[in-house]
Task: structure prediction
Amino acid sequence: MISYEEAISTVLEHTRVIDTERVFINQALGRVLAEDVLSDTDKPPFDNSAMDGYAVRHEDIKLASEENPVKLKVVGELSAGEDKSIVVEKGTAVVIFTGAPIPQGADTVIPFEMVQKEGDHILIKHPLKAWSNIRKKGEEVKQGELLIKKGTHIRPYEVGIMASVNKVLVSVYRKPKVAILVTGDEIKDVGEIIEKPTQIRSSNSYVLISQVIRSGGEPHYLGIVKDDQEEITRALAHLKDYDVFITTGGVSMGGKDYVQYLVRECGVDVKFHKVRIKPAKPVLFGTYGERGLFFGLPGNPVSCSMAFDLIVHPALLKMSGRSDYAHKTFKAILKEDFSRKDAERREFVRSYVWFEEDKAYCSYSPKTQSHMLTSYIDMNAYMVVYEGIKEIKKDSLVDVILFP
Ligand SMILES: Nc1nc2c(c(=O)[nH]1)N[C@H]1C(S)=C(S)[C@@H](COP(=O)(O)OP(=O)(O)OC[C@H]3O[C@@H](n4cnc5c(N)ncnc54)[C@H](O)[C@@H]3O)O[C@H]1N2
Ligand code: MOO
Result:
């Protein structure tokens, strides 16, 4: 059985970045940038005021004091957006509002609250440094500078930055089309009548649909098929219509666990089946066609969702062009003792991580088994219990991975 590291590196090694498309910036949120975005101008494009106040010459006010206030004549007014030409001559000041261009001759802005008004004059009793309260042309960004790198996950801030450089149509990676096929004789979809007490509602369908959306994919729910070779084969015939194909159930040792055999017959080149992790040990991975990725996830609800988070999610991010696809592990202080009987597999325990002062703490769900989907409630991370570790004492440092 391979390790988690071997599994994830095999998956990522076979993950190809998808093609691109162009969208309007108001559709770009959550997508991945497929081009570098450069600045079309200097930012700010011209010297302008950071405050409402008076534009003055530093030379005039540099010796101002309580005892020897400087008196300047107010000769005009400039609002944001105005481009009238006013010159600040020696001994004069111009009323200026935030964002307005700095008039010729001025090199300092004094906020209103720092001066005393006397008719059409102002009194200044404190000196300011030259260029105070002035936002200089190009101080943030130079024309042609790289603003947002290809591979960046677009958040509202990046949308705004693109708008600020008039980037209306933007090249993004296409969302991977992800098929979700649920298998199991006992599985019933939401809304279906439960005829026997042994039937189970398909939570996996809806966890997976949601996870695919959260990972930037486009889910295509193919519904539930029975543990029937013909039904499964018929569904797998559509493999090539999708960039990624996910099944749940039927990958373990049961007499009706057909998925693992049928995928091979349907053209999937299986790269691994079974990983030394708990839960989700029987996870299966293979490739098909040009870039197709096949994931056979176990039926147990936690095994299914955890295998998605830790194995499928990084692959979907990489396929969608993201540069930050690897998940990040960090340290937290365990708040209570942890123990387990079998230390053969690496275990990912649903946990809650929080920050207090400058430290991260971790507390784990008492529900550790793979059929207990409610073990996710109130939790936000997986605590990693490595192979060979049976006990972890309270106050020890543990590795944690935040949920995507
Ligand atoms: N002899 C062995 N038996 C099992 C082993 C093993 O190594 N040797 N592995 C166990 C592990 S670990 C897992 S995980 C499961 C995975 O089995 P399958 O992937 O074949 O899943 P199923 O048997 O079809 O279902 C398992 C369990 O999950 C429930 N289920 C299935 N689909 C859904 C769904 N869509 N929504 C909610 N719940 C679902 C199903 O009713 C079963 O209870 O195998 C162990 N066995
Ligand atoms: O791996 Mo299974 O997922 O332990 O229950």
Q: What stands out?
A: Helices lie at 4-13, 58-61, 156-164, 203-214, 229-236, 259-265, 301-319. The CA atoms of residues 251 and 257 lie 5 Å apart. The pocket of LQZAQKY5 (ligand 1) is lined by residues 182, 184, 186-187, 200, 202-205, 248-254, 257, 279, 281-282, 298-301, 303, 370-371 (CB under 6 Å). The two ends are 26 Å apart (CA to CA).
